Amino acid sequence: MTSTDLPEQDAPRYVRLTIELIAEITDEQALKAAALTQVADDEYLDDEERAQAVEAIEVDPTGSLAHFVDPVALLGEVPGVELASATWESATTDYDPDDESWDEYEVK
């Protein structure tokens, strides 16, 4: 690689950060109530988005949990970094805490 192949110091460099979390829902009703409050208080949602969010919360607890994911909070205070794009999804998964193949993901 020559010096002409290197990116300019001021040129933006993008990094894809992949994080996988497994959360156990221990109180579905409390989660649902908190998510509904979060949606009701969200000043950036228009009426159609709010209706879709409420429907997702009513159908599945994974829809509730998604309302608490905040990538801006994760990177907002990191110096020299600006969040360019973020997407995420939540879905149920088969998880067995006794299965040793999951040990690498275990919170210690």
Q: Would you write up a description of this structure?
A:
- With 108 residues, the chain is mostly helical.
- The chain has a domain at 26-79.
- Helix content is 34%, strand content 0%.
- It contains 4 helices and no strands.
- It has helices at residues 28-41, 47-59, 61-65, 71-75.
- The chain starts with 27 loop residues before the first helix and ends in a 33-residue tail after the last helix.
- The mean pLDDT is 84.
- Residues 95-108 have a biased composition (Acidic residues).
- Residues 89-108 are annotated as: Disordered.
Q: Report the span from N to C terminus.
A: 41 Å
Structural class: mainly alpha
Q: How many β-strand stretches?
A: 0
Helix content: 25-40%
Question: Helical segment tally?
Answer: 4
> What is the C-alpha radius of gyration, as a whole number of Å?
19 Å
Q: What general outline do the C-alpha atoms trace? A: flat
- Unreliable spans are none
Strand content: under 5%
Mean model confidence by pLDDT: 84
Element order: H for helix, E for strand: HHHH
The largest pleated sheet is described as:
none
Region (Disordered): 89-108
Biased composition (Acidic residues): 95-108
Outline:
By secondary structure, the protein is mainly alpha-helical. The protein has a domain of 54 residues.
Keywords:
108 residues, mainly alpha, 34% helix
